[in-house]
Amino acid sequence: MTSSSCVACILAFMCTAAMVTAATTKQPLTRGRNVLVFGGNGFLGADTVEHFIRNGDNVTMVNRGNWYWDSFNRIKPYVRHISCDRKNGIASCDDLVQLVNETTQFDAVIDFSAYDEKETKDSGVLLRGKVKIYILISSDSIYDVCDKTHDAKTKEKDAIRPEDVDEWNRLVIVHDYGHRKLRAEEELVGQRHLDGGYPYVILRLPDVIGPRDSTYRWWMYQLWIKLEKGLPSKPLTIPHFLVDYHMSLVYSKDVAKLLFELLQMGDEIRDEAFNVAYDSTWTLEELLRAIGKSLAMDELVIAEEKDHTKSLYLYPSVRRGPINVSKAKEVLGWEPTPFDEAVEEIVTFYEDAMTGETFYIQKDEVIQSFVHRLYAENRNEFYDAVEKVYNISLQHFRPKDEL
Ligand SMILES: *[C@@H]1O[C@H](CO)[C@@H](O)[C@H](O)[C@H]1NC(C)=O
Ligand SMILES: *[C@@H]1O[C@H](CO)[C@@H](O)[C@H](O)[C@H]1NC(C)=O
Ligand SMILES: *[C@@H]1O[C@H](CO)[C@@H](O)[C@H](O)[C@H]1NC(C)=O
Ligand SMILES: *[C@@H]1O[C@H](CO)[C@@H](O)[C@H](O)[C@H]1NC(C)=O
């Protein structure tokens, strides 16, 4: 991914995600459940697929065939992969059609790549009668197009569009992503009501944090914090409008584990939507301080920036505020990794990625993304600081000296 597409990706947010440990144990595909995954190569999806294959499940991934980060080694050898672009309709993907034909029933379908009703409709047509449980990965951004009538944390039952047509339209125009994600949900629910469809579970996630995030959101903040003292022309700031804004977050690894556990649960989870996030919420400043603490930088100076174009605005991606997760706790036994532990794991991953060789492509991309967004006028000052703090060479970014 180039830095400009990365920026586009950040703006579109909710690009999916992946996880820390490498697949060390080769599980032969001789036992386990038959799981069909749409997407699964993004940040969250790859973590999930890894969790399933490590536990011996038989995973077939359906996507366009991009292997991000180290997933070519971490995941590809252990799954069946079907190359398919859902934009063209899955019925045009012969290998998938054939697989479905040969399969009596999938133990689960996990859908990471439904961004509109088209995808859930197509799946409904092709997979009808063959799915034990269909898990749709949705987003808390769907609440941005709904009519929330209270100030407490958003609950699942707040997912109701406004009755007023003008308001309905206004929200849809402002929040296109949330609108489409909600249409994907509505289609799935509609099929169930119309003719039985298949049992489903909808998970509504807030911003996902974790290693291998191709939006580089976390990594850019981590870099900025780490370079705090070394960047005189760009001190650490947060946009003023986020000063008091509390956001929900979820850790990719926890969602992967939850998805695995969902398949062992009974009827109580069927045909339900669940908010899945940490119970606690954080302001952006609190999040940056948590990253700083993990980097042994306890005394961060963080200023408020009135001109938000001069600061990074990467979290949060929704405006309706945090979500209430009591339903997931009660029904699913949801119990995420302690936040400090998650932060530690994520910070360690990106620090290692910065000094190691494995992720040299991503390292170059995050550096270029940072320069592009914040340091275009004084690149060399930035490169100097990175080289000094991490003891790495960025010679390849500097103009060649005349010989
Ligand atoms: C794993 O799944 C693929 C595709 O559904 C199938 O061809 C294969 O037979 C399965 N393997 C096992 C051991 O179930
Ligand atoms: C599905 O399999 C049956 C045989 O079991 C075959 O007759 C049929 O043509 C197949 N359909 C597709 C779409 O491959
Ligand atoms: C979340 O919802 C539950 C159940 O309705 C309620 O008891 C609880 O107070 C809510 N929590 C917050 C933080 O709003
Ligand atoms: C920096 O890296 C070089 C090798 O690239 C190494 O020789 C040197 O000891 C390192 N310096 C520090 C302070 O770690």
From TrEMBL:
Ranges where the NAD-dependent epimerase/dehydratase domain occurs: 35-277
Gene Ontology process terms (BP): monosaccharide metabolic process
Any Pfam family matching the protein: Epimerase
Signal peptide as annotated in the record: 1-22
InterPro entries noted in UniProt: Epimerase_deHydtase, NAD(P)-bd_dom_sf
Keyword Zinc included in the entry's annotation: no
Keywords: Signal
One GO CC term, this protein: cytosol
The keyword Cell wall biogenesis/degradation appears for this protein: no
PANTHER family (UniProt xref): NAD-DEPENDENT EPIMERASE_DEHYDRATASE DOMAIN-CONTAINING PROTEIN, UDP-GLUCOSE 4-EPIMERASE
Entry protein name: NAD-dependent epimerase/dehydratase domain-containing protein
Organism whose genome encodes this protein: Paralvinella palmiformis
